[in-house]
Amino acid sequence: MSSNQIQQQDSEHCFHPFSNYHQLNRDGSRVIERGEGIFVYDAHGQKILDAMAGLWCVNLGYSADALIEAATAQMKQLPYYNLFFQSTHAPAAKLAQKLSEITPEHLNHVFFTGSGSECNDTVIRTVRHYWSCLGKPSKQVIISRENAYHGSTMAGASLGGMKPMHAQGGLPIPGVVHIPQPYYFGEGQGQDPQQFGLERARLLEQKILELGEDKVAAFIAEPVQGAGGVIIPPESYWPEIQRICDKYEILLVADEVICGFGRTGQWFASQTYNIKPDLMCLAKGITSGYVPLGAVMMSDRVAQVLRDYDDEFTHGFTYSGHPVACAVALATIEQMQQTQLIDYVHDELAPYLAEGWQQLSEHPLVGEARIKGMMGALELVADKTTLQRYDKKLAAGTLCRNICVNNGLIMRAVGDTMIIAPPLIMSKAEVDQLITLAKKCLDQTYTELQHQIG
Ligand SMILES: Cc1ncc(COP(=O)(O)O)c(C=O)c1O
Question: Which of 289, 310, 338 is a domain's end point?
Fold first, then answer.
């Protein structure tokens, strides 16, 4: 089939996630044909360095044969069975055990889902059920943050703090409230960063006191906000959040759908930030994106309460613990362990990428270059001294994103913040390639913006 035919079938029949359909039909979709290593190839044969690892998930790149072999073998053995009605199978049981081993010590129990969004639906069901089991059914409210992303189901989008998502469909659902985010570049300039981090964390305490401790079930957050623009909190933020959750007995939920599986330079960001979540959401990198799978890790404390409840927890999905997905996850973890990938990322790759990324902060278009592990952001500004943004009408971020893809680089734009989260298996030479391409694209974007301003 020609790429034109694919585009035509696509535009006539396929609704895309997070897309402006008017624009999509006018411009047509880019047809991605194949992947190899850290590159994807479109239908015109253009080679594109995928600095977003798909959607923050293809951590092992596009050529991990062991994952394909694991899926094939499992498909032949048992392509599907569920975990309902007292059934189980080896891939789910083995993966549950493996996840208990690699996640922080107190997280030894798992509820499987099909995606990150379903993890967060599971979080709401679980924390409310937990408090109800403990005789505190009034503890219902979940506190989240503005500009957080927790998925696109009704619960996920409600927990998320994206205003355009709330605007469609009357969200958030009742019982979810949001506090401001620890976005220093966007909202803290002029203050001491650590003081800003503390102040933002203490807004949690303020919200708990305002709502009443007896009403609050949990606080949920991404250790580093991903889709919001790779927002890396000041070091003072997480210890204060942990202190507040402990003080008021509020369950702490770490949404590690992006941050987990090495993205921040350790297996999990909860280790990077030294926090002890009661629940931890995993997806994406758990299978390197090859097949859909999500997992909610539960602490011993939470699991014990659920186990002591002598009736059904009326929650679950057809694909909870899908055997093929679990087999691929096991192969993913095995490959990461065998190749000592986390050590490579932590000791070599991430520091090397950070060095290159920081050099981009010297570019006239860049107000800040920040990076944590293998996730980075560039803030595009019109004036490097005042950090003033370009006029929104110029859509500098979108312009830069389009220039990137035309030059064979996928960087994502969140407003005028350019972000990356490349595969963890890249070589240092590929990092050099990424930085060189990014610089070239920034140059072209800058020239184009200067031209438009006149
Ligand atoms: C932190 C976080 N949580 C949840 C989700 C939702 O995951 P999914 O798209 O698999 O439902 C995402 C997706 O990007 C995410 O970044």
Answer: 338
What is the CA(363)–ligand 1 centre distance, in A? 31
Looking at residues 48-72, what average pLDDT do you find?
98
Q: What is the mean pLDDT of the chain?
A: 97
Together in a domain, 157 and 278: yes
Phi then psi for residue 279, to 5 deg, are -135, 145
Q: In the chain, how many domains are there?
A: 2
**What's the CA-to-centroid distance between 195 and ligand 1, angstroms?**
30
Segment 163-182, tens digit of pLDDT: 999 999 899 999 999 999 99
Q: Which residues line ligand 1 (CB under 6 A)?
A: 55, 115-117, 120, 149-151, 156, 222, 226-227, 255, 257-258, 283
Please tell me the distance from the alpha carbon of residue 304 to that of residue 130, in angstroms, as a whole number.
10
Mutating to test ligand 1, I would choose from 150, 152, 263, 293 the residue with most ligand atoms within 8 A of its C-beta, which is: 150
pLDDT at position 1: 83
Residue 274 pLDDT greater than 90, yes or no: yes
Q: Which of 146, 174, 141 is nearest to 160 (CA)?
A: 146
